Every structure is written in structure tokens, then in C-alpha cells.
Amino acid sequence: MSLTVERPQAELGETKTMNLIGAITEALDEELARDKRVLVFGEDVGPRGGVFMATAGLTEKHGLDRVFNTPLSEAAIVGAAVGMAIRGLRPVAEIQFADYMGPSFDQILSQAAKVRYRSGGQNTAPMVIRTPSGGGVKGGHHHSQSPEAYYTHMAGVQVVMPSTPYDAKGLLKAAIRGEDPVIYFEPKRLYRAAKGELPLADYTVPIGKAAVRREGTDLSIIGYGGVMPDAISAAEALAEAGVQAEVIDLRSLMPWDKEAVLNSVAKTGRAVLVSEAPRTSNFMGEVAYSIQEELFDQLLAPVIQVAGFDTPYPYVQDKIYLPSGNRIANACVRVLNY
């Protein structure tokens, strides 16, 4: 299922249809051509084009000194990116799966996130860490996790997760051009499933701004990344019963668009928060807290969260673990009947 873009088709000018992974490849291609400081590297991202082929053709086009392979060491990949960024380059490092980011955790937490503040603004680390994230492809315990909450807790790091080709390209370009380290999670189950129209002209999508995917007045469904097709599906099913759900795509988790969320929930009085990460310490808990703190007297029902379960990601029960359209719709019925 394809998701709607933020802007009406008439405002996009001349466009072309592309899937999400193609939009990522095109963003990298254009930024490599636009800025000679941009480098793309990681495990197998060179001539092979990466495990998901997101960098296919880029080494041939831009050269082995701009798009290249690294040793199998996530700590070295991110550590090198931090050093490059401090010295004025614009590194885009790929971690092959989000599950593999653990060895680079200290480099992100203690170096990339802190360098601006530790140096009193004299140094910055404008770098991007790209990584495929989430389930839905039967990758099992080590290829399906959604660890974004770890990184939203790191002051000094921006965290984004697109769900449409339009946003995938625009957010990646904004991340590469920005002055802060950005962790760019790519929902791999949408790589080829999500299709949409992209402008031929250059554009960026601002980090920290949510998108309204569907307008409604009865309740707000708020999500990001790979769950968005299911959120849309649930809203469409509810519409057949006369319930109009507003669907908000956060797109950015740090910073996140609190204003857009509060405006929507203030209008509808009900909120269902959706993500595929485990429920406990889920980032959506922060969103829920902000809603009740700001809008307690306006809520018509408790805020409900639909998430993954507090288990390692199961291989066999892949479809049961992920928040389906049915699970989301059932949660919506609960808040509507409260």
C-alpha cells in the first residue's frame, strides 16, 4: 500500500514514480554530485551496492574514493565518520542492519552526540548513519529489531524514520546538509512496497515536522515508519463505519513535532499511538506523556499504545508481533467506546 505525500500533486511540479529504496539511492546520488565533501561507506556498500542494493551503481558513478566498503566493524565505521565530520567532510555511514548498531553505541553516545557541546560549538559532527530497521521480512532476532528509542534518549543526536519515498529522499537530503549527527532509520519492509511521486526538482523535508496523512475529527492515530500503511488501513476501515480518524506520521522522533500531535488530539479528544518497537520504554510513551500533560482535561478516553511485544523479535510469529491494521482498529474502537 502506498502512502500519500505531504503536498498535493499539483504543488509538486513535474514528478516521477519511485519506491522508497529508489528514493534513498537517488538522494545519495544527488548529494554526492552536489557536494564533494559527501562520502558514502559501510559494509558491502561499494561495488555490490549494499545488502538491499540501496547504493547500487554509486561507486561506478562517483568513484571508489567516494563510495566504498569498510571492515566488518560498526565501531570503526561510526568512529571514522565522527572524525571525518569534525574535519569538514559530510560522511554518510551505513550500518547494515539496525540490530548491528550495538558496537557503535559508545561512538554515537560519547562522541557524535557530545562534540558540539564539549567543544563549546567550535566543532560539530554533521554526519548521517543510515540503517535498515524493523520487521516484516522474516529476519528473525538479529535482523528485525526497532531500536530507535535508545537513540532518542541521546541529547545531541537527531533521529528520523520516513515512510514514503517523498519523505525518504527529502529527509535524507536534509540530514546530509544539516549540522548535527542524524540517525536515519529505514523501514525495510517498505523499501519496495511504498511507492509515490517525487518532484524532479531539488527539495528537502524539514527534520522535526510531522505530516498529516489523513484528516479526521473522531480520533487521532499517530505513528511512524513501517506501521504507517497499517495505520492508514485501520483509518480506512473505520471510515466505512462512519468514524473519521486523523492519521499523523511523525517522520522525525528527535526532534518530534509535539505541536502537530497536540493540535490533532485537542481536536479529536482521543489518541492511539502506533509503533512496532517493544512496548516497554517505547518512544511513544514520551508522546503519550506529553498528550496527558498538556491535554488531560480535553481527553475523552485514555491514550492507548499499540506496539510490539516485550520479547526478542520472533521469527515464526512475525505477523502476530507487528501492529496490524486489525490491532490498530481494535484499539481505536476501545477509545471510541470508552
Automatic annotation (TrEMBL):
CDD domains in the record: TPP_PYR_E1-PDHc-beta_like (cd07036)
Pfam families hit by this protein: Transket_pyr, Transketolase_C
Keyword check for tRNA processing: no
Residue span, Transketolase-like pyrimidine-binding domain: 18-193
Keyword Oxidoreductase: yes
Cofactor: thiamine diphosphate
Gene Ontology terms, MF aspect: oxidoreductase activity
UniProtKB keywords: Oxidoreductase, Thiamine pyrophosphate
Subunit text: Heterotetramer of two alpha and two beta chains. Directly associated with ODBA in the E1 complex.
Identification of the protein by name: Alpha-ketoacid dehydrogenase subunit beta
Source organism (scientific name): Deinococcus radiophilus
